[in-house]
Amino acid sequence: MSLRKEVERRLPNWASWYPSVFEAARDLGLIRARVCSPSSLLLSNRHAGVQAQAEAAHREKWGGTDESGRSAETPRKRRKRRRKRRKD
Fold first, then answer.
1. Quick one: which of 5, 17, 26, 45 has the most CB atoms within 10 Å?
2. What does the pLDDT look like over 13-40, one tens digit per residue?
3. What's the rounded Cα separation, in Å, for the pair 63 and 60?
4. Among 76, 60, 57, which residue's Cα sits nearest to residue 68?
């Protein structure tokens, strides 16, 4: 049953007292706020598991190592460039 139908079943004239169905549902105890950590509100954190599964499936299907046998996730070490000395 939808939230609106449940509110209407319990309180038929809710619209005359409440500005939204959510306010009425909160007062009726149908919905409650939950306390959560701020980091769980970031979409990047919420979808990290989904992204990891997609990457694993991609590696499984298309291969996960390059020619050197290194995993695609492992970053390559960069070589430092040498500066050319000026001849004055």
1. 26
2. 999 999 999 999 999 999 988 888 887 7
3. 6
4. 76
